[in-house]
């Protein structure tokens, strides 16, 4: 019999044309994170400050915005300012660059870009093109400065929670906020409140803090190409710079950020581009693909529930 689960995901559906803050509540800003930069001596205080300022400015610009409107000038100006700071930062050689700076900058840009894409109906071309260019450059730089040099086989990765119940799959779907057909860059995995979330494989913690709509988030760098992300955590249990082993508890599942319930948003990235964790991790279990239970009239149609059995 198929296991029935309630739909939980990365955001709830707000009524149309109401202020963003009223729909979601204002999430803790980047300033809610510790303003103390990582202890790496290569850390850029200028970039660190620019990211906080950028986050505060775009969040302030959203306070009275309505969904579907054109991006206001204050928001666009904040984007152009931080993109300029990133251009200056990326002039540094890899030897002068902290991997924590690169990971933090990439995560902040991705999170704020996703939030703005949910809210605004029109982006200035300079913002859209500049953001994508900076994200590509940051991903390339992270592969050069990562302290993890050996390459690992994805077949050795494990699921971060068990049993594995996928409530929203990787790929294009109707976005639960905008109602638009959009890309979901990870998997939503059902979890119990405060359930331990474990590292999919050995790696270094390159980010462990609040990250906008993703709430409390951990990013692990496994090799120069591969990273995994664990979002909406209730509790962070590892600091940036820590080395963790496969299966080590890195946080507790929660519903922080924009989330409809307790779950884990799990992402697998290769050179900054998302890949389907289900395909990668399914092959790690004797080449057996996970089962796909039949839909039930009691299961919300957008959940596309999937259950993966452990060996």
Please write out the topology.
Elements: H1 20-24, H2 45-62, H3 73-89, H4 99-119, H5 125-145, E1 164-168, E2 171-174, E3 181-184, E4 187-190, E5 196-198, E6 203-210, E7 216-221, E8 226-236, E9 243-244, E10 249-253, E11 263-270, E12 273-275, H6 277-282, E13 306-308
Antiparallel strand pairs: 1-4, 1-13, 2-3, 4-11, 5-10, 6-7, 6-9, 7-8, 8-10, 8-11, 11-12
Tell me what you see in this structure.
It is a single chain. The chain has 311 residues and is α+β, with helices and mostly antiparallel strands. It folds into two domains: 44-145, no CATH class; 154-308, Glucose Permease (Domain IIA). The chain contains six helices and 13 strands. The protein has helices at residues 20-24, 45-62, 73-89, 99-119, 125-145, 277-282, and strands spanning 164-168, 171-174, 181-184, 187-190, 196-198, 203-210, 216-221, 226-236, 243-244, 249-253, 263-270, 273-275, 306-308. The strands form two sheets. Strands 1, 4, 5, 6, 7, 8, 9, 10, 11, 12 and 13 form an eleven-stranded antiparallel β-sheet that branches. A hairpin with a 4-residue loop joins strand 7 and strand 8. It is globular, with a radius of gyration of 19 Å.
Rounded to the nearest angstrom, the distance between the terminal CA atoms is: 19 Å
Any idea what the radius of gyration is?
A: 19 Å
- Return the CATH class of the largest domain: Mainly Beta
Instruction: Quickly count the domains.
Output: 2
Could you give me the name of the CATH homologous superfamily of the largest domain?
Glucose Permease (Domain IIA)
Give the structural class: alpha+beta
Annotation field: number of helices:
6
Kindly report the CATH topology of the largest domain.
Answer: Glucose Permease (Domain IIA)
The helix-strand sequence is HHHHHEEEEEEEEEEEEHE
How much helix, percentage-wise, in residues? 25-40%
Overall shape: it is: globular
Please give the number of β-strands.
Answer: 13
**The biggest beta sheet, please?**
11 strands, antiparallel
Low-confidence stretches: 1-7, 12-37, 283-311
Strand content: 15-25%
What is the arithmetic mean of pLDDT? 76
């Amino acid at each position: 019999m198929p296991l029935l689960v309630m739909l939980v995901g990365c955001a709830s559906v707000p009524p149309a044309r109401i202020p963003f803050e009223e729909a979601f509540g204002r999430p803790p800003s980047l300033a809610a994170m510790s303003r103390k930069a990582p202890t790496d001596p290569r850390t850029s205080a200028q970039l660190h400050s620019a990211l906080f300022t950028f986050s505060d400015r775009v969040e302030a610009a959203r306070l009275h915005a309505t969904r579907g409107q054109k991006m206001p000038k204050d928001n666009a100006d904040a984007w152009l300012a931080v993109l300029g700071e990133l251009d200056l930062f990326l002039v540094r050689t890899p030897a002068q660059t902290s991997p924590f700076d690169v990971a933090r900058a990439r995560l902040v840009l991705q999170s704020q870009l996703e939030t703005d894409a949910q809210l605004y109906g029109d982006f200035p071309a300079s913002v859209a093109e500049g953001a994508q260019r900076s994200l590509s450059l940051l991903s390339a730089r992270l592969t050069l400065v990562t302290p993890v040099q050996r390459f690992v086989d994805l077949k050795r990765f494990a699921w971060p929670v068990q049993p594995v119940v996928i409530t929203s799959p990787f790929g294009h779907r109707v976005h639960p906020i905008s109602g638009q057909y959009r890309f979901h860059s990870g998997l939503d995995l059902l979890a119990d409140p405060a359930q331990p979330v474990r590292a999919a494989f050995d790696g270094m913690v390159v980010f462990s803090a609040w990250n906008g709509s993703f709430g409390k988030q951990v990013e692990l760098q496994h090799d120069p190409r591969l990273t995994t992300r664990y979002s909406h955590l209730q509790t962070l249990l590892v600091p940036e710079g820590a080395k963790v082993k496969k299966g080590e508890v890195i946080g507790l599942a929660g519903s922080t950020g924009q989330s409809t319930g307790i779950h884990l948003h799990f992402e697998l990235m290769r050179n900054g581009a998302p890949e389907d964790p289900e395909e990668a991790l399914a092959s790690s279990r004797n080449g057996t693909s996970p089962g796909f239970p039949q839909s039930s009239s009691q299961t919300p149609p957008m959940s596309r529930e999937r259950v993966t059995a452990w060996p």
